[in-house]
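Please annotate the following for my students:
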Amino acid sequence: MADAPESRLDADFLEFLTTAADARAAALLTGYPAHITELREKGRARSTARALRTLTSVHVHEDSAYHHSAELLAPMAELADALADEQEDGLWDHGTDGSPPDTAFSVVDLNITHHLLHEDGHRSTAALRKAIERILRAAGPALATGGLHTANHRWLVCAALARIHRRWPHPSYRERIDAWLAEGIDQLPGGEYSERSPTYSAVVTNPALLVLARHHGRTDLYDTVRANLAATLYVIEPNGEVESVHSRRQDQTTLRYLPEFWMQYRELAIRYGDGRFAAVARLLRERGAGQTMGETPLGDRLAQVLDQPELARRLPEAADLPTDFEHHDASCGLVRVRRGARTTSIFGGTDFPDVRAISSGLSSNPTFFKMRKGAAVLDSVRLAPQFFSLGHFRSEGLERTDEGWRLYAEMRGAFHHPLPRQHRREDGAYPLTDDGRFLSAMDFPHRPKDYRTLRTEILVKEAGDGAWDLDVELSGAACPFALELCFRRGGTLSGDGLEPVSGSSDTHQLVAGEASYAVGDDRITFGPGNGKGGRQPAVVDAGERYSWMNGSNTPDGVRVLITGRSPLSYRLGLR
C-alpha cells in the first residue's frame, strides 16, 4: 500500500478485508475446480476469473497469510489455463456464440489481476503474468468490434477496453470507447440510469464509469457516479436492502443489498470529502461480515483496494444519513418516505401505460405501495380487478396533492360489432390485429365498439407516526376486485376476520375487522375487511398477458386479500 502513507491508512478496514480474503482463498484452494468445471461445461468465465483475482490478491498482499505462498501457484495456473483454453476469438461462450459483454465482466477482473501481479513482480508468477497477458490481448480486438445487449453493457465494455488500452495501446480501442461514450451517459434527472435499476445495473455502471474516469481521462464521470450514489441514499432500507420496485431490470422483484455499493461510496467519500458517503462506508464496516453481501463475497473485495490503494485511506468525518424525509424521484415515479426505522415506498411509474406490454426491460411491477416497521415488512400492495382480463392496476402517474400522493388509471375493454360493409371480405381473411388484450384475425380497428371503462384512483395519505391511509375509489364499470397485501415471510398473522383461501397456500381473505402481521415486537395492523361472496371472489387476476402462457405474477410471501366490487370507495388503514 505504498500509495497510501501509513498515517493515512485505515488499518482496521484493510485488516478486515485481508481476513475475509484469506478465508475466501482457503475455501478456493479446495473449491476452485468447481469454477473450472462451470467454465468448461457451461462456457461461463466469470466465477473462474473472479477466483483467480481473489487468489492473486492474497498472493501479492504482504499482510496476507498467503503472501507469496507456493500453495497458490498451481491453482492460479490451472484457472488461467482454463480461461485461455475456453477463449475463442477473444471471447467466452456464456451460452451464446461468444458474448462480448459477458466476456467484459471477466476481463475487468483479469485487468485487475494482471495489474496486481505486474506491480508485485514476483518471479514465481512470471509465467502466469504472460498467460493472463495473452488472454487480455486476445480479448481486446473482440471487445473493440463486438456488440452487446443492454444499456449498462456499453460502459462495462468501455471499462474493460480502457485498461487493456492503457497497458497495450491500440487506436481501435480508443475509437471504440469514444464511439460508445459519444452516445451520452443515460442518467435520468433523479440520478438513476435509464434502466432505473438501483442495484442490478447501477452496480455495473458505476464501477465502469469510475474506471473510465481513472483510465480514460473522463474525470467528469466522477460527478455522474456521485449523483447516482446520492440518489441511492433515499432507497436504502435500515437493514441494508435497497428498494428497487421502480427498476426496469430483474431487480424489480428481487432483493438486492447495499454492500454492492461499498467501494463506490468509499471512493467518492475520499475523493470529495462527502460525509454522507463516508457514513455509508462506515456503516457497512460496522455491520461486519454477518451482513448479506449480495453477489460479491466479502473476501473478493481486497483485490480492488490493492488495485486502488487510495481506497485504503482513512474516511473523512461522517455526516448524518437522511433518516426523516419525503423524497420524490419524478423521473422514476417513486416516492420514498422514511421516519426513522419506518419506511414507505409509493410507486406509480411503470412503463405499462405507455407501452401496454409486459416485457424484459420494462418496468411492470404492479406493486404501488410498500412499508416496513422494523422487522415487519409489507413487501407489496397491489390491486387486481377482474375486468376483461386486463390485469393489475398500474398507475398512469403519481402526483402530489394537498392530502397526499395520487395514483390513477383508466382501463377500457371493448365489445365488438359487425364490420361496416366497406370492410367486409367474402373470404373472411381479415388481418391479425390487436384488441388490446389479445390478437385475432378480426380486423378490430374497423369494427364499431361498445366500451366499458373502469377508473381507479388511490390517494395515499400519511396518518402520522408511520401510519398510512390508502383511499381506493373504483368507478365506472361493475366488476370484482382483490386488494392484495403480501407480507415478508417469517412473521405471524392474527385477526378474527381472517379466513384461509382454499387452494392458495399462505393466503387469507380478510372479511371483517382488522388483522395484524407481527415479527417479534414489530407489528403492522391493517384493515378493515370488506366481506366475501361469489360476486367478490378471493381471486387475483393477473391478466391474460400472464395466464395465456401459464405465467404467474404472484409475489412470494404471506398474502391477505381484501375483496370487493366496483363501483366502490374503500379506505385501507395501515398502522
